[in-house]
Amino acid sequence: MSTAALSRVEAASLTGMALGIGAHTLFSVHDAFIKAVVISAPAPQILFIRSLVITAFCLAFGRSALIHDLIHSRNKMLILGRGLMTLAAWVMYYSAGRDLQLAEMTTLYYFSPVLTTVLAVIFLKEQLTLARIGAASIGFFGVLVAANPSGFTIGWPVVMVLAAALFWALAMILMRTISKSERTVVQVFAQNLIHLVIMGAVALPMWQGMDARQIGFCIGAALVGGLGQFTLVEAARQVPASVLGTVEYGALIWSFVFGYLFFGETPASTVYVGALLVVAAGLTLALSERRARRELVDVP
Asked: Around Cβ 117, how many Cβ atoms within 10 Å?
């Protein structure tokens, strides 16, 4: 591989990691919108509105070609599986939002990158390097430090978030596989179409009235969340699932910021220590991936 080719590979890797960080930052904003409305409205109803808005935008962008590509896709079962996995993860995650603080929810949910790293080795045969193991471990330890887990009370909300982390990790593996042959907009459209149909069947029979504020938060969540979904799939094209899972940790910081700004949740001093560890994990992984790319190249 030439030096120019190496530069392109390095650029793709760093671009993928940057897209992953950007996607999970958008998801943090999205979670804050959902947290604001899930206290007073059922999670299925919120997910229905969000999926309706994202589906409409995808159709406006992709038009008939989008429907054609989905109908003729060879990945229908994988797409369906990913849609069901993400739906299960989000329903449990946002239902737990009634009882947990935003920072607590996010911290528990970030067991997912560790699971993604392990599952990527099992199902995608990705190499489990020492750097990836170390970055995932450092990041998760930073999450625990920031969260002060001694303050957690184990109950159904906690169990639901941990189960959501497992489903999300499985969905990440499926996304990485599907991304090799499907357009990003097809994946985003199909996922939200699945959510729209299922959540419609659940939410419409027991629909609750919503005021303008609640609807506004749902639409805001849809716009930010849809962009986050699109960015995440694009990131999956650039970097392995194990790497993409680890960069999720960077969004932890935003959960504490938004928790403080919008919900009056004051971070403890341990948050700053944990945040430094999270940043260290991300930098370690970025440097390691860059070095690994260079070691594969014989530059004359």
From this structure: 25
CB 106 within 8 A of CB 255: yes
Q: Over the Cα atoms of the chain, what is R_g?
A: 19
Pairwise CA distance, residues 139 & 246, whole Å: 7
Token pair belonging to 4: 């120019």
Show the DSSP H helices in the chain as ranges: 3-38, 43-71, 76-96, 102-109, 112-123, 130-147, 156-178, 184-203, 212-236, 241-246, 252-263, 270-295
Q: Is 298 exposed, middle or buried (0-12, 13-18, 19+ CB in 10 A)?
A: exposed
**Segment-wise mean pLDDT, segments of 10 residues, the chain, 300 residues:** 49 70 84 83 89 94 89 91 89 74 66 70 71 73 66 69 83 83 90 94 90 92 92 80 63 69 67 69 64 50
How many whole angstroms separate alpha carbon 148 and alpha carbon 11? 37
User: Taking the domains of the chain in order of start, what are their residue ranges?
Assistant: 3-295
Q: Specify the pTM.
A: 0.73
